[in-house]
Task: inverse folding
């Protein structure tokens, strides 16, 4: 049981490049979330999903897109990366009957 | 707009001392979470507080919730160096896809 995993762990992009971050969970959780964490700040919600095929905007969705084609996977896409998107990205998941979110190890993204 | 404020933002304390971290939030909530984050690591769940007056303890840490005052506290008793980390509170609600709003975090440094 791996819990929540994220791919890749580190990535460096140039401005304007695109990439996709993958989050996978093996706990059969309905809810999944993408957060970003910037220095000196708490986590801020980018997008979330309440089930396969559904997504919704969080607090800071601009510049990101997401997809949840399979229940166990939640993809975060950056179509045209900007330096302001340099951050650590965390994925989390939660079951409908659980009280807490479980977090992945994070992806450290640098946009030059 | 929900605001979650933690104070202090940085806390340096000596081993053996006691201290309290405060988490204030601006709107009603029915659940409050405390997380620990070590440098470069993901978030580790410490406590989930689900009702007014809830108190939970684990080792040298004790968390409480006062929903009427919209205040949660994380009390540290006889601090040890291993407690050095950043502590986040997060506020959530049922029925809203269990989204969380995080505080800015309190960086705790326990010195010998």
Result:
């Amino acid at each position: 049981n791996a819990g929540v995993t994220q791919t890749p762990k580190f990535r460096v992009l140039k401005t304007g490049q695109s990439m996709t971050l993958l989050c996978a969970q093996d706990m059969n959780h309905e809810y999944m979330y993408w957060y970003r964490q910037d220095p000196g700040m708490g986590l801020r919600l980018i997008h979330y999903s309440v089930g396969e095929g559904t997504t919704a905007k969080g607090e800071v969705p601009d510049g990101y897109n997401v997809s949840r084609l399979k229940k166990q996977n939640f993809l975060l896409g950056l179509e045209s990366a900007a330096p302001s998107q340099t951050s650590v990205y965390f994925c989390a998941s939660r079951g409908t009957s659980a009280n807490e979110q479980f977090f992945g190890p994070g992806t450290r993204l640098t946009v030059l | 707009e929900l605001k979650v404020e933690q104070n202090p933002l940085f806390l340096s304390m000596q081993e053996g001392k006691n201290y309290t971290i405060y988490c204030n939030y601006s709107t009603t909530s029915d659940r409050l979470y405390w997380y620990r984050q070590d440098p470069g690591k993901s978030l580790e769940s410490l406590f989930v507080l689900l009702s007014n007056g809830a108190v939970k303890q684990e080792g040298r840490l004790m968390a409480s919730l006062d929903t009427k005052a919209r205040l949660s506290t994380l009390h540290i008793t006889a601090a040890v160096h291993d407690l050095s980390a950043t502590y986040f509170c997060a506020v959530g609600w049922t029925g809203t896809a269990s989204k969380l709003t995080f505080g800015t975090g309190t960086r705790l440094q326990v010195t010998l």
About this structure: The mean pLDDT of chain A is 94.
